[in-house]
Design brief:
Blueprint lengths: L1 E10 L2 E10 L2 E11 L6 H4 L1 H5 L4 H32 L2 E10 L8 H4 L3 H22 L3 E6 L3 H9 L3 H13 L7 H15 L3
Parallel strand pairs: 1-4, 4-5
Antiparallel strand pairs: 1-2, 2-3
Helix pairs in contact: 3-5, 6-8, 7-8
């Protein structure tokens, strides 16, 4: 079977997912999805720490834990589905890439809920954490790349400059049509890099 990898760029309550394979070192997009990481796609669940801010601490903790469990279940279901679909096409998905924000370690919940900036950070990190759990559940080897370092890393690994790389990423999605935003481009590049540089 041929190798494929999936890349993820996360937002509050959803993630861009792009599956890529390489043929003679050239990338091909096999699948592109927007995966919902909450069952009910409304503010209450998409921004769980914002919602928890107005709750007593123990209720907030239980609410956030519940959103995390649900999100991990949905992420696992999406990953198993893509593994099955691509498997039928002759591709094996064993590697994935997750784009990170700052990568800072968050403090305890009570301290998070006192800071609006930390609440924003924690919302994004919750959904990345759910994906990490899903990767483990599906037996995927994970590579994490900081969002702001992605293009530089891509340029080094693929031996090209930023402008050519961005042009190539735009061309990669042309046949797929919309949406092919920065989210899809970056998720595709992240998947491409774990195949091009498996070390």
């Amino acid at each position: 079977m041929k190798q494929a990898a999936v890349g993820f760029r996360v937002h509050s309550g959803w993630s861009a997912l792009v599956a890529v394979s390489l043929e003679n070192e050239a990338p091909t997009v096999l699948s592109r999805e927007r995966v919902h990481l909450v069952e009910t796609f409304i503010y209450k669940f998409r921004q769980p720490y914002h919602t928890a801010e107005r709750m007593p601490l123990e209720k907030a903790r239980a609410f956030i834990d519940g959103v995390l469990v649900e999100s991990k279940r949905l992420a696992t279901r999406a990953l198993r589905s893509i593994q099955t679909d691509l498997g039928k096409q002759g591709y094996r998905v064993e590697r994935c890439a997750l784009l990170l924000a700052s990568g800072k370690t968050l403090p305890t919940l009570d301290r998070i809920l006192l800071s609006h900036a930390l609440i924003h950070t924690a919302d994004g990190e919750l959904f990345r954490e759910s994906l990490r759990g899903a990767f483990a559940q599906c037996g995927l080897e994970m590579t994490c790349i900081k969002d702001r370092e992605l293009l530089d890393r891509g340029g080094q690994i693929l031996r090209t400059n930023r402008e050519k790389l961005l042009k190539r990423l735009t061309e990669l999605g042309r046949a797929l049509g919309s949406p092919w935003t920065q989210d899809e481009k970056y998720a595709a590049l992240a998947a491409w890099l774990v195949l091009a540089d498996p070390a």
